[in-house]
Design a protein that fits this description.
Length: 68
């Protein structure tokens, strides 16, 4: 009887550890993809500013301050 309880406890602990590791893996993959998307979006937003600042203006080309 005691060994059955021990097996249940060990199974529960292993199940919790496995579920936690799986959740961390899934969250890590989602986080990596989110960072990749945000980085590419930020690069796309910064590209016009970099090109525009090379011409002597530090504002994005779509900004209302570009004509000043």
């Amino acid at each position: 009887m005691l060994s059955a309880i021990g097996l249940v406890v060990v199974g529960f602990v292993l199940g919790v550890l496995l579920a936690g590791a799986g959740a961390c893996l899934v969250i890590g993959v989602i986080h990596r993809e989110a960072v990749r998307i945000v980085d590419s979006h930020m690069f796309a937003m910064a590209a016009p500013m970099v090109l525009h600042s090379a011409a002597g203006k530090a504002t994005p080309s779509g900004s209302s301050h570009a004509n000043q």
